[in-house]
Amino acid sequence: MLGTLGNALKKGFDKIAGAVFIDKKTIEEILKDLQRALIQADVNIYLVKELGNKIKTEAQNEKIKGIERKEHLTKILHDEILKLLGGEKHDFELKKGKQTKIMLIGLYGAGKTTTASKLASYYSKRGFKTALLGLDVHRPAASDQLEQLGKQIKTPVFTDKNEKNPVNIYNNYKKQLKEFDLVIIDTAGRHDLDQELVDEISNLTGEIKPDYKLLTIQADIGQAAKNQASKFQETCGINGVIITRMDSTAKAGGALTACNETKAPVFFIGTGEKPSEFETFNPKSFISRLLGLGDLEGLLEKVQSAVDEKSQKKLKTKLEKGKFNLRDFQEQLKQMGSMGSFSKMLEMVPGFGKAKIPENLMGVQEEKLKKWQYLIDSMTHEEIDNPEIIEKQTKRLQRIAKGSGTTTTDIRQLLKQYKVLKDLATGSDINDLDMSQGLSQKQMQKIMKKFGKKIKF
After folding, report:
1. Who has the most CB within 10 Å: 16, 207, 348, 412?
2. Is the pLDDT higher at 25 or at 293?
3. Domain 308-451: which CATH number of 1.20.1250.20, 3.40.47.10, 1.10.260.30, 3.40.50.10490
4. 3-84: what fold?
5. Contact (Cβ atoms closer than 8 angstroms) between residue 114 and residue 149
6. Does domain 100-301 have CATH number 3.30.360.10?
7. What is the pLDDT of residues 423-455, one digit of tens each?
8. What's this model's pTM, rounded to 2 decimal places?
């Protein structure tokens, strides 16, 4: 994601750290690399020029007291890029106990329907009783797509394939929708923001009275996002923006900065195809990831998006009773798989962002997790509940290996990691930790010290 910009920032900070003293030439070199990277990321050239002049003026200020010039320049670079991306994080917090209606609007191809399902999954995992409402009556198969996505994330979908008036669809389901904490509304798009689309959004807004209208924009439109955000803001009164396809384009910088220019806050970004590859946009964390410094807040959010609250409560109850079998282990593997690729997750772990880990190695680990799930599916109920009996009987090992298309070595590796995870999950000193506020650094070190050497993939 914006690799060129990240490399330029890292190079700039390294150059500052390694310089004997900061002179005009050093500043010019750093700015040149940074400006080139910003232009390649499709950031508006006038913005890039303005940013360069501002940094140059600030960096040459000799009247800074109580701070080294290196630190001063580092802070200026960080702060100006932060401003370019929107500054502080714009919170989008929903409260339980009061129904919230979110309407997604945008043009054709922006990914509204997929985004609606991702948003539904995001809040369902956070305990909201969520429903999807399909009001796209123009695009063929829009209802079918929404229904398929709803099944995938286990969220009810309300739509009507035969009704061509979106207001009627809403009114037909109005009573049923009152049962939900959150209703996410997928609307129709057009090739352009024409009067027909404006009228349709206005009619729906008047009837539904959504709490939020969020504009969905794809990252690959780059600087054109400014025009879209401005027009939708003027005609439809949007509350904010969701940017999709952040994982596959160099133009993402253009989309992010363009939205900031229009004062339309970016609340969420889509970073892949899976429901869990969707996260709140935090400019500070985004820069941290660009620099290879990780993003623990984003990683924890991703974990929460992949984890089902009900299944975790069920697992917690089993752990309290000292029970943890291979089926529970398999469920954890599935949830890990739904979080996205290992390489994306490692980018978010402090220290790993800079590590040069071969991509093929990441693929091997992902394949291993899939293989372990096949192994568990080939076991009997007795073996799943008491995996200790497998190692003692060669016939069981051979039967499971043959049934899953794996080897006995694969089975032994699975059982070894299962034992480690079981020790971690049922260890009394670990269960005593208070998870309600997240783990502190000391608690994390405690766990890693005890189990770090045992866990090998």
Report:
1. 348
2. 25
3. 1.10.260.30
4. Four Helix Bundle (Hemerythrin (Met), subunit A) (1.20.120)
5. yes
6. no
7. 765 554 444 444 434 444 554 455 445 444 444
8. 0.67
